[in-house]
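Q: What residues go here?
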């Protein structure tokens, strides 16, 4: 017996469509396979849930700040928020923020070396 996911009626295995609503069982098999591929939302403990702004958005913001104001703290904050579990599925924001954090860290290192070299280099 096949149970229709649209109306819930039990049908014979030989049926190609639901006898009640006409839903295609071929379509149902494709949809069930697709649902198995989808990731479920992560279970986030209450103590780790954030308020209005979630960690992918914070990762993105700190990543941009680490590029604009090349200070290591913003890169570390972006990396910290990158690792935290999230309630929302904003992976592109999270990934771009992480890339920005690496670029900001590289800029910070370059500026630090440039300043130190300027202080110790003979004139």
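A:
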């Amino acid at each position: 017996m096949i149970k229709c996911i649209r109306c819930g009626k039990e049908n014979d295995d030989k049926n190609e469509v639901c006898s009640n609503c006409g839903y295609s069982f071929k379509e149902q098999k494709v949809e069930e396979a697709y649902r198995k591929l989808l990731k479920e939302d992560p279970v986030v403990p209450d103590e780790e849930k954030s308020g209005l702004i979630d960690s992918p958005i914070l990762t993105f913001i700190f990543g941009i700040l680490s590029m604009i104001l090349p200070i290591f703290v913003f890169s570390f904050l972006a990396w910290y928020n990158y690792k935290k579990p999230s309630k929302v599925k904003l992976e592109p924001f999270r990934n771009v923020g992480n890339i920005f954090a690496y670029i900001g860290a590289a800029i910070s290192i370059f500026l630090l070396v440039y300043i130190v070299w300027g202080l110790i280099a003979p004139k």
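A: Context that may help when evaluating the design: The beta strands are 2-3, 10-11. Residues 74 and 92 are 19 Å apart (CA to CA).
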